[in-house]
From TrEMBL, chains A, B:
<keyword id="KW-0238">DNA-binding</keyword>
<dbReference type="InterPro" id="IPR036271">
    <property type="entry name" value="Tet_transcr_reg_TetR-rel_C_sf"/>
</dbReference>
<keyword id="KW-0804">Transcription</keyword>
<feature type="domain" description="HTH tetR-type">
    <location>
        <begin position="6"/>
        <end position="66"/>
    </location>
</feature>
<dbReference type="InterPro" id="IPR009057">
    <property type="entry name" value="Homeodomain-like_sf"/>
</dbReference>
<keyword id="KW-0805">Transcription regulation</keyword>
<protein>
    <submittedName>
        <fullName>TetR/AcrR family transcriptional regulator</fullName>
    </submittedName>
</protein>
<dbReference type="Pfam" id="PF00440">
    <property type="entry name" value="TetR_N"/>
</dbReference>
<feature type="DNA-binding region" description="H-T-H motif">
    <location>
        <begin position="29"/>
        <end position="48"/>
    </location>
</feature>
<dbReference type="InterPro" id="IPR001647">
    <property type="entry name" value="HTH_TetR"/>
</dbReference>
Length: 192, 192
DNA sequence: TCCATGTTGGTCCAGTCAGTCCAACATAGT
DNA sequence: ACTATGTTGGACTGACTGGACCAACATGGA
């Protein structure tokens, strides 16, 4: 194989992911991507394919990056409430990081689902379902209502993304998360 | 005034609102709007102004239409839990209506905030804050924690919009709402 | 009746879009 | 050193975008 890649593929993907995360699929042009990565169109098309494929790779990279963090937060907690609080802390910390766009790429993409191609729409649903299963697995040991609670927790996560985008403060977002944690606590200590 | 309007402005606005609600701001072209309303560009520009103004009018019409429904649902309920359940029932019924797009125009627009013009971005925040105040007013009589709970309820409302767009079933959405209602119930009967 | 005023729908325009193509280049194996 | 192979970034294309414009039209008042 002669002629090696002149750029770091993962680094470029991070830049593209951030761009989609900030502006959404429709409002991110190839010109934005070219400008953010410093690459030419030939390199982008040769390495990643078209815009839709570039988006799919961004979704996967996002899910992988933050999926690990969620996984770590959920595991090894003594109570369901502490696990869910740690889960929300991941989101709250990410939202508070000024180097990253607001909200959540998955939530953003779910909203755009009707105008995404079938492949990307399905991918978004699958990633969200995977997230639900992750939370449910962490709750299963504590309560028989894990399925319902897991869906509620994942939904609240999406809510935080919307509220952040709408301009809510860090305190407000933490408050929403804490109400949700108390709901999980009440559910698991009373009925479970 | 000679030369009267040949079309029903509110009817046209409903069609435009539905289009934005389905596809979002960026993915809705003037061509879509012309085609959906059957009007010419001259009529649209003469009556509403440009695309951004058309979007603003759609936001306001949306907020007005469903704001009345939320208001009615919240008022005159004997307990906070019943008020919030009725509130969520408005969203759930709207989502279940096959004639309307999924999710919520406000939530959709909040997600697109970074790429909206200042006027529309501020409008979205204002409408969401108005919604929060509406819920808080309904809860104020019952509990001292109304501010925090109202924010939680409005957030859950946004969560339902995201989950619907992601393909969640009516049962799943109802389940999320019921967990939230129980959280309100526990908060207001225990601490209040 | 006739004209001033507002409406209508189509045409046109400059800019932007995603995607294709290719000539110049850099490398690895021989 | 030479060449086959893969990479690169810019030039180009046809389609589409939001918006400006306007000639034909419809109406209400004088």
């Amino acid at each position: 194989m002669a002629g090696r890649k002149q750029f770091d593929v993962d680094r470029a993907l991070d830049q593209v992911m951030t761009l989609f995360w900030q502006r959404g699929y429709a409002e991110t042009s190839l010109e934005h991507i070219v400008s953010a990565t410093g690459l030419g169109k030939g390199s982008l098309y040769g390495t990643f394919g078209g815009k839709a494929e570039l988006f799919r790779r961004s979704l996967d990279r996002y899910a992988d990056t933050y999926g690990r963090q969620y996984e770590a937060a959920l595991s090894g907690r003594p109570t369901p409430a502490l696990a869910i609080q740690a889960f929300f802390d991941v989101v709250l910390a990410r939202i508070a990081d000024p180097r990253l766009p607001g909200g959540c790429l998955i939530a953003l993409s779910a909203m755009a689902a009707p105008t995404l191609d079938d492949g990307n729409r399905d991918r978004v649903s699958a990633l969200l379902e995977h997230q639900r299963q992750r939370v449910q697995a962490a709750l299963d040991a504590f309560t028989p209502d894990a399925a319902e609670l897991a869906l509620f927790v994942v939904s609240t996560n999406q809510a935080l993304a919307v509220m952040d985008r709408a301009g809510a403060s860090a305190e407000q977002l933490a408050s929403v998360a804490s109400v949700a944690v108390r709901a999980v606590e009440a559910s698991t200590s009373a009925a479970g």
